[in-house]
Every structure is written in C-alpha cells, then in structure tokens.
Amino acid sequence: MNVGADELRAVLNAYREVRSASWPELHPSMDVNAARWAFAGEDELRRELEGYLRESSDPRRAVRVFYKLGPGLVFAGCNAHFAKDAGLDVSELVGLDDFSPRIPWAAQAAKYRADDQEIVAAGGARLDILERQTSSSGLITWVRVGKAAIRTAQGAVIGILGMYEVLDDKTAQQLYLARSKA
User: Fold this and answer.
1) Mean pLDDT for the chain?
2) I want to staple 127 with a disulfide (CB 3.0 to 4.6 A). Which of 31, 93, 146, 166 is the partner?
C-alpha cells in the first residue's frame, strides 16, 4: 500500500494521540519529535513511524499497534506483536481487512468495523475500550484498546489507528468490575 508524506504525518499524529492518552510512558521522545513532522519528507516520516512500531514491539511492554486506511479500512501497517496476534507476517497483513478469513478474529469483524466506522464518522477517538479478542491460537483474551481517527492536515479522516495490550485475567476482571460499578 502506497502511503505518502501527508498520510504518514496523519498516522503519526493519531499514534501520538492514542499513546498520550493510554500509554504515555511509551516513546517518551515522541512529543519532542512531533514538532519536526510538519517539515519532514516522506522517507524521514516513514523511518520515524517504523521506529515507533519497532520500539512498541518490546516484549516488556507488548503494545500492539495497527493502522487502517481508505474507505475499506484495510491494514496499511502494524508492529510485529499485532502481526503475531494475527498469525501473519507484517507484509502479509497489509492490504487485508478484518473480514479476511486469514485473520483469526474474522468472527468479531462486524463489531470491530462498527467501532471503526463510529470513530471515522466522529473524527475522534475511543480510548480504554475493554473487549475480548480471538488470538491466532484460538484463545479468547481480554484486551485494552485505544483507537483514533487518522486525520489529514485539512481535517479529512482517512483511516483509524489502534493500539492495544493483552490483559491477564486478573487485570481484565478488575477493570471490568470497576467499569460496571461506575
């Protein structure tokens, strides 16, 4: 999928929005680097995004990152953890959508697509979503998700960026109980 400088800049800004709200300890230099993005060329922006995707694949944190572009919301990029959850290589995932039979959560695709379309329509973000997901091994896991619209400098929404982390059962139960009491 060919992604130009404007789209890369928009992806980086959406990444920063979700990271700042839900995983602020991830990529502490991102806020300082963001000032350069307006003037950076496509190659520099691509290297910057690839660096963040690589760094977020640190096994100590294991945050999954993906982004979808276009009216079909097809995967345009992700980190290694996300690709592993899908049971695919990063290059195999690019160009697919959630409904692809190659993706283990295809049965949940309608829910994910509805969430994505809501975010696209609103042009905003949904943060700290608690939901279940089917892994490539067939296990059902709980995940904490944040998603944001990917907006160009002109304000057009061109996709969504998502980040999530897999929760252990105890953490998921605590979050679920806390939210049900609120």
Assistant:
1) 88
2) 146
